[in-house]
Design brief:
Layout (H helix, E strand, L loop, with lengths): L1 H17 L11 E13 L7 E12 L5 E12 L6 E16 L2 E15 L7 E16 L4 E9 L8 H4 L10 E10 L2
Antiparallel strand pairs: 1-2, 1-8, 2-3, 3-4, 4-5, 5-6, 6-7, 7-8
Length: about 190
């Protein structure tokens, strides 16, 4: 009986020892974080600031060190003054400029599209190409959770268009603003 139990224990020994070892790498060197933010922007069209929410995802790879990518979608629709709203969907590279313990500072350059309903809303709406340099400060508060603050200065070069500015040329719009939020590291 003792020999059978000993043989059975020896068979289970490899299973129990491998279960105690932490994996060396998870996600094959990739890191994915996702989160949400509250945003407050100056729309550059109309007198009031716009507020809303944004969702974002950040992707990094261990071999690229400080270089990663960010995608975001923002809907500035909380209590819109006179019906004015702005939405944007942007994607692009981000670079970690500085890191000290749990604090990281990033620079980013995003490209995509912006949609606006003008003030007053009877004027109409439009969709435009947009690009946005910006910066992010991120503080890791737990192994998978971070809080962050973000600033973007967007350029919509073809907005609002000659239909709104004729006989003067259209010089585009430059909405800009701050966001604060949190992210969760998925892997």
């Amino acid at each position: 009986m003792f020999q059978k139990l000993f043989a059975f224990a020896l068979l289970l020994l490899p299973l129990s020892t491998s279960a105690q070892v932490a994996p060396a790498v998870s996600g094959h060197g990739w890191s994915l974080s996702a989160g949400a933010e509250y945003s407050n922007f100056q729309p550059d069209w109309g007198p009031d600031r716009l507020q809303g929410i944004a969702v974002f995802a950040d992707v990094d790879h261990i071999l690229l060190r400080n270089l990663g990518a960010e995608g975001e979608a923002r809907w500035l629709r909380f209590s819109p003054p006179q019906g004015e709203t702005e939405d944007n969907y942007l994607l692009g590279p981000r670079y970690r400029v500085w890191r000290h313990h749990a604090l990281s500072l990033y620079g980013k350059f995003l490209l995509g599209g912006g949609w606006i309903t003008y003030y007053p809303s009877t004027i109409g709406s439009g969709s435009y190409f947009a690009y946005a340099p910006g910066g992010t400060a991120e503080f890791r508060v737990a192994r998978r959770w971070s809080v962050r603050g973000d600033y973007e200065y967007q350029f919509w070069p073809s907005a609002p268009g000659l239909a709104f500015t004729f006989p003067n040329p259209s010089h585009g719009l430059s909405p800009n603003g701050f966001s604060v939020g949190a992210s969760y590291k998925i892997f």
